[in-house]
Amino acid sequence: MLTRYLACDLGAESGRLMLGTLEDGRLSLTELHRFTTGATPAGESLHWDIDRLFGELRTGLAKAGGLGLPIASISSDSWGVDYLLYDADGNVMKPVFHYRDPRCERGVARAYERLSWEEIFAETGLQFMQFNTLFQLAAESPERLAGAARVLGIGDGFNAYLSGVANWEESLASTTQLYEPRLRQWSGKLMDALGLRREMFPDVVASGTRLGELRPELAAESGLKELTVVASCSHDTGAAVAAVPAQAGEWAYLSSGTWSLMGVELPEPIITEDCRELNFTNELGYGHSVRLLKNIIGLWIVQECRREWAAAGNELDYATLTRLAAEAPPFESLINPADARFLSPGDMPAKVAAACRESGQPEPASPGALVRCVLESLALLYRRTLDQLAQLTGRRPERLHIVGGGSQNGLLNQFTANALQMPVITGPVEATAAGNILVQAIAMGHLPSLAAAREVVRNSFDLETVVPKNAAPWDEARDRFEGMLQSPPGR
């Protein structure tokens, strides 16, 4: 049996419309349309150009319709925390703020005037990040909120654009810090405390819910007939974890890209004082599973350095940067990638140099040395995070699955295996699109279960096992890294 599906996969830097073909237990992916996303500066603020992004989806739909092939369904996924406000006429209210907008600090201060962090965490089990939806909504003006009839996450907003049906899907709702993962419902306590009207928040549906058919005007424009819109996993990490090619045993995952999201899959959330103090998060996934994870700044630091170097006339592609990093001396300098200074854009090489200088280490003398510093530090932060996961769950994973675009960085993969001293299985690169499509296949009755979907992944994509090496120097570097995190700057 051959079936086809479409995935609108929206990332923080780029978006794609992907065609997935499922045949004889194997999945193939074809990119039909790619476009940039990214922040649009507006003075000192950062926005999403949502009309352009909707237009890019329409362009992709036209390309899909032009194939003249039967396609069963479509679903959208996106990064978490950002949202669309709609007025009473159903129009998106502008601007649509970007999660790196500086207003988030104001939102945190406003929220803490009404609720303590301990209360917020006890209700939601979500780690502190200043751009969580709760804090972003706290930063909104009362006038904007008064004029908003409803709010949807980005991925669910795109599904509503496709189907005309406005629902939150559970994996995306769970990223807002307004959702109670144990009761699986919106938190009335938090909404009341922040003055948010409950009727603004549509119902939450389970991952893999059919929403309806493609809106008639989009069907006529694109030529796509009888196309079902599915809320698969609207959060891109939820989709990516659905495509982790795991089998039995203890395993952890790392969704690697602009962000690194590292965690384990559990049947129930862990909402404890230890979890709060270690700043882990409980997000939901397919089948009401729990993703106990930590959001870690991933390759964002390297991406921003590359952008800065290019602006100065030094164009270096990622392959060149990785080669230069491999040739640089090991462990000359380390940073804490979780340092808040690295969250915002702007002269990232100078920020890395300042962090090294403040901790009494040499400033990286070349792009290769700087990238090596970042990659080694990331691998050591992954080791720290895995140790904390073992502390919270009482179980230590036997292997790590790395999925997403960052799984192509062979040097970082080897560093990670070395730091963790455990096998690392890499792939698939297109985990988010694959997971989006495979959850659609389950929803449409074409696959029986998540286990069957993960078997399809194992049968369909090239996976590589990276064996750990060089334990001693990495153990020494870990001790140095841990000591650096415990010491104030300059010591």
Any chance you could write out the topology, listing elements then pairs?
Elements lengths: L1 E9 L3 E10 L2 E11 L3 E3 L2 E4 L1 H17 L6 E5 L5 E4 L9 E2 L5 H10 L4 H8 L8 H7 L2 H5 L3 E4 H10 L4 E2 H4 L5 E2 L4 E2 L1 H7 L9 E2 L3 E5 L2 H7 L5 E4 L4 H7 L8 E6 L2 E8 L6 H6 L2 E4 L5 E8 L2 H12 L6 H10 L20 H11 L8 H27 L5 E5 L6 H11 L3 E3 L4 H13 L6 H11 L3 E3 L4 H16 L5
Helix pairs in contact: 2-4, 10-17, 13-15, 15-16, 15-19
Question: What does this 3D model show about the protein?
Answer:
The protein is 41% helix and 22% strand. The strands form 6 sheets. The protein has a 7-stranded mixed sheet, sandwiched between helices. Strands 3-2-1-6-15-14 form a 6-stranded mixed sheet. A 3-stranded antiparallel sheet has the order 4-5-8, with no helix packed on it. α10 (236-242) crosses α17 (431-443) and α13 packs across α15 (367-393). The longest helix has 27 residues, at 367-393. It is globular and about 60 Å long. The chain folds into 2 domains: 2-235, Nucleotidyltransferase, domain 5 (2-Layer Sandwich); 246-427 and 461-491, 2-Layer Sandwich (Nucleotidyltransferase, domain 5). The model has no long low-confidence stretch (mean pLDDT 96). The protein is α+β, with helices and mostly antiparallel strands.
Q: Cα distance, first to last residue?
A: 64 Å
**What is the H level of CATH, i.e. the homologous superfamily of the largest domain?**
ATPase, nucleotide binding domain
Shape, principal axes of CA atoms: globular
Level-2 CATH architecture of the largest domain? 2-Layer Sandwich
Strand content: 15-25%
- Helix count, DSSP H or I runs of 4 or more residues: 19
pLDDT below 50 for ≥5 consecutive residues: which ranges? Answer: none
Question: What strand order characterises the main sheet?
Answer: 18-19-17-16-20-21-22
Which CATH first-tier class of the largest domain would you pick?
Answer: Alpha Beta
Main beta sheet: 7 strands, mixed
The count of domains is 2
Number of strands: 22
Helix content: 40-55%
* Average of pLDDT: 96
The radius of gyration over CA amounts to 22 Å
Q: Briefly note the CATH topology name of the largest domain.
A: Nucleotidyltransferase, domain 5
